[in-house]
Amino acid sequence: MAARKTAIDLMVNTDWLLKHLDDPDLVVVDCTWTLKDAARRGRELYLDRHLPGARFLDIEKVADTASPYATMLPTPEVFASAMGELGISRDTRVVVTADGYTSGRGWFLFRVMGHPWVRILQGGNDAWALKNYPLEAGEPPVVEPRSYIPAPETERVVALHEMKEIIATGSAAVVDARNTPRFTGEAGLSHGDLPGGHMPGAVNIPYGRFLDEHGGFVSPETAARIFAEHGVPESGSVVVTCGSGISALVPGLMLEQLGRDWRLYDGSWNEWVQQPDTPKVISRAEGGSK
Description:
By secondary structure, the protein is α/β, with parallel strands linked by helices. It has 2 domains: 7-152, Oxidized Rhodanese, domain 1 (3-Layer(aba) Sandwich); 156-286, Rhodanese-like domain (Oxidized Rhodanese, domain 1), CATH 3.40.250. Helices cover 29% and strands 12% of the residues. The protein is built from 11 helices and 10 strands. The chain has helices at 7-10, 14-20, 42-48, 76-85, 103-112, 124-130, 160-169, 180-184, 220-229, 249-257, 268-272; strands spanning 11-12, 26-30, 55-56, 93-97, 118-121, 157-158, 173-176, 203-204, 238-241, 262-265. The strands form 2 sheets. A 5-stranded parallel sheet has the order 1-5-4-2-3. A 5-stranded parallel sheet has the order 6-10-9-7-8. Residues 22-137, 168-281 form the Rhodanese domain. This is Rhodanese-like protein. InterPro entries: Rhodanese-like_dom, Rhodanese-like_dom_sf, Thiosulphate_STrfase_CS, TST/MPST-like. GO terms for molecular function: thiosulfate-cyanide sulfurtransferase activity.
């Protein structure tokens, strides 16, 4: 298992970033993303406003686009090509930001590909704007392509066959970060015409619980209390999941800060619900469990 970072290593604040924004080895990556049923998509929001020089990482394109399941992690080759086009090499220090909660997914993309130095801007674009720090609009900057060599950390990800065993044996706690109606089955999945529901034994902690009133991430101490309130053991392995592996990285990031042993089930409910042999729990209104 890869070494865990501490809380102080994972985030930078707006003042730090303003001071280092022009460092030649530092790149700001904006990974704003929204669900397909949102009024505006991530790229539109990026074009409206972004930090000076920020480069846009499209979560839906830097993915396994050949997969039938939404926003699955990209192959190392796809990631390397995308980072090269963004002018990023393994020597680049990367600060990830977003409008909203998706900086966790951006951070994880870099970490699972073994990037040595990646941090999250605490509070994201909103925190930057609240300080009245400079913003830009329009297309991303033209940059010189670079060579990127990934070093994938595959142990950070759970595959479908492993997830089946975890659910069958209870060998890890499972935290589902979706909003409660989708977890119970009262609402369907936003990715296509798929029913809601959850895996047997999963604990529902909506990702918004880990965000403060300004949209920043809560402290590790607060996160630990939230996990405890929902019955997540203080030790042992944890698997995070959601609809398609994006909001799951909010509790995942919290677990990373706490130094916990955790992994992402990347396929999440989008993959699980489409398997004929996986156990599923849905609300009574939808007909019970199967």
